[in-house]
Structures are given as C-alpha cells and as structure tokens.
Amino acid sequence: MPTRYYVTSPKSLPLPVYAKYALLLSSSRSLCVSVSAYHHRELASCRRTSGLKPKTETRRRKGSKHDKTGCLTCRYRRKKCVENTFPICGACARLNLKCIRDSTRDVVPPSWVDRKQQSSQKAKGVVIVDGSSQHVTHYFPLCPPAPSAERGEPPQKRQVMRYYIEILSQFLTVNEQFNSFLSAWLPMAMESSVLYDALVAFASGHLSLSDSKYKVSAIEAHSTAMNNLAVALSAPQHDSTWYETKVATCLAFVIGEVCVGRYNGWYTHLSGAKLLIEGATADTASGATLRGPEVFKKSSEGQWILRNFAYHDIVASVTLRKRPLLDGSYLDGITDVVDTYLGVATGLLRYVSILCVLDEETRLEQALPDDELERRRARFHATCADVEHELQNWHCRADASDQLAALAHAFRSAVLIFLYRLVRTRLEEEGPSASHDWVSTVGGWDMLPTKIRTQVSNILRHVDDIPVGSHAESAILFPMFLAGGEATEEEHIDLVRVRLQKTLEKRRFQNIALSLDTLEDLWRRRRELDGVRVDWTDVLDSSKGPLLLTQIPECFLIFRAIIIVNKQPADSFRRRPFKATMTMATVSSAGVKLATPLTEARHHPAINPTDTPAASAVLHRTLKSSPPQVVAADGKYLTFADGQTILDTTCGAAVSCIGNNNQRVKQAMVAQIEKFSYCNSMFFGHPIGEELAGELIRGTDGVMTKAYIMCSGSEAMEAAMKMARQYYVETNEPKRINFIAREGSYHGTTLGSLSMSGHVARRSLFTDMLLPNIGRVSACNTYRGLREGQTEEEYVVQLADELDRKFQEMGPETVCAFVAEPVVGATLGCVPAVPGYFKAMKKVCEKYGALFILDEVMSGMGRCGTLHAWQHEGVTPDIQTLAKGLGGGYAPVAGLLLNKRVADGIANGTGAFSHGHTYQGHPVGCAAALEVQRIIREENLIANVRKQGALLEKLLHEYLDDHPNVGNIRGRGLFWGIEFVADKTTKEPFPRSADIANKIHLTGFTEMNISLYPGTGTKDGMLGDHALLAPAYTSTEDEIRLIAEKTRDTIVRAFSQAE
C-alpha cells in the first residue's frame, strides 16, 4: 500500500477546509505542487468560507525597520561581495567569507523568533532516550533542544539557524565554488520558513535511508514542509523573492523525492516549479511588470534557480524521452558563469533541450505528405549537423577550476552521445532511403559506433579527473549513465560500474542505485542476447518508474550532516545514535500511530559505537569503521572485547580447520622458535621444511614430486604462473605466454593472480593494470549454466568444446596453462564441478600440450572430504596451489606442488626456479603446518569431514529448500554455499542495493552469534548473493546440527526483517 502523508488539522480550521488540504497534500505518494489557477481558486474559496487567514511568511518592505535590522540587508540593497559577483547576506562574516559589509546583523528574521501559539503546544513525536522523554519539535524534528530551553520546549528558529551557521562556518571550504550556494540557498532559507522546512525534510529523509530511527521524523518533516508550502501558495505575493523561495522549495522537494526513491513524485514537484516560473509576476522600480523567467533574472539568486531548474528539467527529458517542461530560451544570458556545482555545463544542456524539441517537431508520421516528410528530414539532419559542429568546437571557460572543467567536458561528450543516439534512431526509421548530406557527413552506421565509443572514452577520462566525494562529482550521474548505456567494452563497463558504486557509497541517493541497476540489467541482456542491440530505454520501459539522472551539490549533504550533530562542533560529523528503543510509524488514514519497536541497528559488525575509525593506526579493510576486537579464541569460538562470543561456522575464511588454541601446534611452534626462528632460503635449508615437504608429497601418493613453501595463496598463484612460463622456456617453447582461466573465479589479490581471476567486481578497480594475456571460459555451474533438458554429460561436452575453441582463438602454441578451482569458493559460493568435467578439461590441455593447474587454496587440504580436492575428480594436476587449511591459521603459510613432468623440465634446464621470497619456507610456519597436517592425518579428521559434511548437506536441504529466497544449496565435504535469489523460478538475483549477503551476515553476527561468510557477484560478478559455511574438521554431530539451525534462523530472520 503506498505511503501517504497526513497533516494534523489545526483546531481552528473547520473540517471541510482541512479535508481539501489533506486531499492536496496526500494525493498519491507526494504533494501535488501544481499551482494552477484551479488550486488558487479552491484555496481562496476555502479562506472565504471559513474566514481563515492562512499563515503566511512575514513580508517586509524595502527600507523598513525589519529590513534595517535583519540579516538580509545587503541582499535587498544588492551590495556585492568582493570575492564574487553574487549578493551576500550578512551571514558571510559568520561563514568566514569576505564581504564589503562593515558589521554583521542578526542571522534570523524576527518573524521567526516567537511562535507563541505553537510553543505552548506539545510536540508531536516522542523519542525515549535513557528513560526520559525528548520532544521533537514540529518545525525542526531532529534538532536537539537548545541548552537554554526547558525540557520538552521546541527550540526557537533563531537558535537553530545560529547553530547552523556555527557548524557551516567550520565545515565549508571558503572558496568561490561555495560562494554561490551560500549567497543563494542559505539566505533564502533564512528568509523563507517554507524553504527551510523543505531542506529539513530532505535532510531527514536522506538520514532515514541509513538509519531507520529517523523514519518517523522524516514523515513528520515531509508533512510539515508540504503543508507549509500549500498554505504559502494559497496567498501568492507579486515579489521576486517570494517566487524565488517557492521555486527553490519545489526543487528541494525534487531532490528529496529522488533521494529516498519515490520516483513518481519528483516530476510532480518539477512541474510545480515550472508553473511557478511561468506564472511569476513582479513590478520593477520603474513601474514595468516582469513576467515568467524574467522575474528571476533580475537577481543572481534567481538566475541560479533557473539554472538549477534547467539542470533537472533538461536531464529529465533525456530519460523521459520528451521535450523539457520549459523552452530553453529562458537560459539566454545566464549560462556563462562558473556555477556552484555544474561549472559551465548548463550552457551545454541547452543543446539537449534544442535536440529534444527538434526530435518532437520533426517526428516522421506516416500520415504526413511526402514534401512535409522531406522537409522534416532535412531540418532534422541540418540542425544535428550544426549542433555537432558547435559542440566539437566548444571550449571551456579559462577561469573554471580543473574539476569543473573536467565535468563540463564530460557533459559535452554526454550531449554528443545523446545527439548520436537521436541520429541512430532516425536512421533506423528512415531505413535505406537515408541518403541525405548528414548521412555522408557522419559516415552512416560505420562511423556512428566509432563516434559514440570515442565519447564514452572521453567521459570516462574526464570523470577520472573528478575525485570521489568532490564538489563536481555531484553532477556526474548524467554523463556516466549515458556512457554506461553505450559502453560495449568490458573495461568501459567496469569503469562505469566502479565509479557509480563509489558515488553511491558516498551519497546514498536511490536514483544512483536505480541507474546502476538499470545499467546492470542492460549489460546482462546484451550478454544474453548476443548480437541483438538492447537499449537502456527498453530496460526503463519495464522498470517501476521514471529515472532522474540529477543529484545535488555536496552542500545539501551538509544540511543532512548537521541534523545529527550535537553541540560539540568537534564531533559534529559523528553519529549519535539513540541508545534505547524507538518506535516506527504506521501511517493510516487516521494519521500517524506509533507502533513496532525498533532496536538500534548495527549496520556493520565492524562498527564500534564507542570508537571512531581514526582511533586505530591500523589500515583496516575499511576506514569507515573500526572492526570488533577479538581478544580470545578457543576451539570453534571467538570472544570479542565487548564480551560477545560467537560460533565461527566458517573457520574465518575456511582457514582454522582444526580450531583455535590447539596445544600440539602451539608446542611445535615454540619448539622450533627455541631452535631458530628464521634462516635465509637463498643459502640455507632446514629439517622442518624437509619434513613438511615430505608430508605433503606423501599425501598425494607420490603423484606430485616437489613442494615449494610460501606465505599466502596469492603468492602461490603468482609462483604457479611463473613456474608454468619458465617450464616452457626451459623446454624450448618460448611462445607460450598465455593462460586460460574461468569466469567467476578468484585466484588472489596480487596483480598477476588478480589478472587470472574472473570476478568482475574484484578486478574492476585495477582493470587497466591487469595482464592482457589471459583468456576466459565459462565456469562449470549447473545452477546457472545447465540448460533445461540438458544432461550433465552434454554440459561437459559443451564446456570442453568452449575450452577447445578458446585454445584455437588464442593460438594453441601460445597457451601455457588452463587454471581452475576444483570447487569455486568465495566468488561463486562453493560450486563443485559435475562428474567428468575436469577429466574433459585436462584432455583438452593435453591435446594442445598445455599445463593443467588447479587452485586449491580454499578447497584443498581436506576441506572437501579428500586431502586434495582433485583426488575426488580422478585427475592429477601438473601444478597445484594450496594454503588456508595447510597451516590452519596458526601461521601464514601456503604451498606449490609440482608433478614429475614440470619438476623434471626445470631440473633438466637451468635447474633453478627464478623466483623467491624473504620468508619463503619460514621455519616456524613450516612447523605449524607440519603439526596441523599430522593432526589431520592421525586423528582421521578427513573421514569426519565426509561424515559431518553429509549431515550438514541433509540438514541444509531439509531446513531451507522450501525458503522462497534460497535458490540453490551446493558444496562438498564441509564446504557449503547457499545462493539467494529474488525469484526462485527465474533465478533473478536481488539488486545490489538490497545488500542481502551482508545483511544475512550481520543478522547472524549480531542476533544469532554465528559467523557466516558473505559473498556477492554470484551470478555475473556484480549481481547475486550467497553465504558460505566451512565448519572445522573437528566438528561434532551436535555442533553441525546447531550450525544448521542457526543458519536457518539467521536466513529466515534476515529476510523477515527485510520485508
């Protein structure tokens, strides 16, 4: 049921009149801001019949007493700031901006100070904090009371705004880019309570996206703001300032709707702004009457508002595929400025307006006569040619900063892409008859793809010059979306994906998430419909609502930040969460009720509510939070500094296979340290290393002949790649430099091993640095790859043929090796191969003389029910990597195993592996690994892995097969994965914005005291969620049952909370 907002009826307002206000305010999902003559007549009728004088903003005459004492004197007198061309209010001194004013006046107009009638009323919302009541003011529901105010008394707006100024003066960089924001929005918000309330509504709505405790306040703030706007619109004032603040309020509502994901509401507010602009009238000092946009052009603030409206209106026309609400002529003479966050891009957007109008007015309709069709064709092509010429010869203003110049160039390329898209569509409509001069100019279909590809590259290059979180980044969504919509190369797609992900993480705007989901859907459809051109318009046509590709300047987010600060400016950007229970709002036609207790959410287990990230000198995996501190571990349980103890159901990352605090391993390590702790492997060997190598070789029944000991799995893969290359150099096949790996794989985090990996998200940030000599084939994933009606045997033949074709494509004589994980762990979620798959793959390798490399870093050393996972497959690798379970987490240790063929190749050549590490074969690491492997063998733990693994498989299927969001359960031994889907029938994954895997992990950690290993990108490297289970080899039947039950309860609870 759609959310509706309701405003409490003032007691003095008769019910029939209130009903009309409610109808206006609660229609659909947001306020209908259309200020049509009908609305004015209706509201005027309400006033006449009720005798009510609506609350309006205080109007001050120029030169009046209020004008002389208020903060906006310089604004009315149009004095200029010496640092910029914009009028600056008296608050500039508090904001550390230079101004020609000699003194600073009061910040807030006196009309805001005393609200005697409202101050006596009880505040509407109540939040329980430490057992006491903190009333939330109707006017500013999120701001704590001023120190001087009594308990429960709403803060006065003078105090609130002075506090705003105090905080803003500390956090805003003093430069020209911020001047226009400060001289436009801040003074206007100080003068207009309607705009002020709209900004509060936006900020509280933005906060509610990351903290559900703010939802009640967001609803109240939104209702208050809409009610105040409706009342203000009922009594229009023919004054430019009145129109400026009301249009600014509409634009604030546009951003607020987009921010929180109400995609059908923003266009209503944008239409309201358009009607206000069109209907504006104001008298000048000379007696002339200005109308429409000319009213706004008389002041720099009004010009800024027109540019802002143009930004939203024109960009919206691209995705809505219709002409803008207003003709672009109103921008004449006001675009050649360095704007707040658009730079000089507004002038470029005029071309989009021109093209939208052109496309509509020259549309080819079958009913038209031939001469009219020809005239329209000629006009369309001639105008497009002119626009392209002007855009190609466009130059950015010399005084624009580097970031704003980069943004402007990105906008220029985006407009060119928009132009070429229109041309492409028109050429398709015209078909073979397109023989005009324009066609020859652009080179027809042969040149258009090249032109578009060039502009995509240009956008990505220029956006790369705009730092994440910078002021200019506020407007990159429009060019990035058009670039992503036309990107055909994987590198370009990855760059678009990564940058939008970073922007989304920084700003949390829901239209960024929707844009990213739209692009992901587009890229997926293109892959599935290879050879068929799919456009983002096709995706939008099937989506939930229109998409707006605009954002806001960083200064708007400062409003959001200020709402959550307390009176200590030094801590003003730290969240101060409520410690006690709060209530969620259930909205019905009767109003807002308080129901459903909500406890404070721990958004990430790594968040320490008492320490800021800066308190740690460690470069943790995220600098956004401090992780929980493990202070003790025993067996399968971890204890944290706050006293919480959890059952580690994943052995970390499938590492602690025999549990923690094993006395035998500890004694073996200490014994080695007492002998010696390190020796240089370049010159010396040691007995403990010989013993470990012997243990490993015996575990392969002598099939492998040499062992090479390192510290991590990534190092092991790097060594495997270099070993394969050196082997062919030693055996006189130096042309073999290429490798073939699989999609969705993960082989490590160093550049070489990451190049081998096929997981898109993990590669994307470093795409330009990765090795180009690695081909890729499909993974063996029956859940995603096996077609309906296809047998497993046919599936194996299909994959073997694909590998054979890849050898042919790359050149059989150039391929070093095929690399694969026997059970794909972290990236796909414990996906084993079907029977016969690896035999078929090795047969193809042998056919072309290439090596067969298996990566068992995660799946090996007993994890899957055999000591080596390949022993279950009935094949032997030429090179094998292993880690994690090798040392059981007691020391960083990994290994590389070679069969006789490879070892002999090196021995018969130079006799030396051209590779080495300082800590290679570290004695203490070897001692730990040797003892762990002896425990596994002597205590027959691999048999227990098979036994308990079978029980875990049975319980997981029993508990979760019927869950509507559990798509697949797969694995082997004590290595199991659960894949989550939005639709079990279509296997459609959840959007990334749902963050399902991490939410399940957090639910398990915070509520069930277990650790589940989350993974994303399960489907295609970007979309898809899964969770891994990798219990210890020493697990008992009771522990396995407990793990299965807690896993079931975690998943059920997480999805229940999400719903």
TrEMBL record:
Span of domain Zn(2)-C6 fungal-type: 70-101
GO CC annotation: cytosol
A UniProt-annotated Pfam family: Fungal_trans_2
InterPro entries documented for this protein: Aminotrans_3, Fun_TF, PyrdxlP-dep_Trfase, PyrdxlP-dep_Trfase_major, PyrdxlP-dep_Trfase_small, Zn2-C6_fun-type_DNA-bd_sf, Zn2Cys6_DnaBD
SUPFAM superfamilies: PLP-dependent transferases (SSF53383), Zn2/Cys6 DNA-binding domain (SSF57701)
Cofactor: pyridoxal 5'-phosphate
PANTHER family: AMINOTRANSFERASE, AMINOTRANSFERASE CLASS-III
Family, similarity comment: Belongs to the class-III pyridoxal-phosphate-dependent aminotransferase family.
Protein name: Aminotransferase
Upper taxonomic lineage: Eukaryota, Fungi, Dikarya, Ascomycota, Pezizomycotina
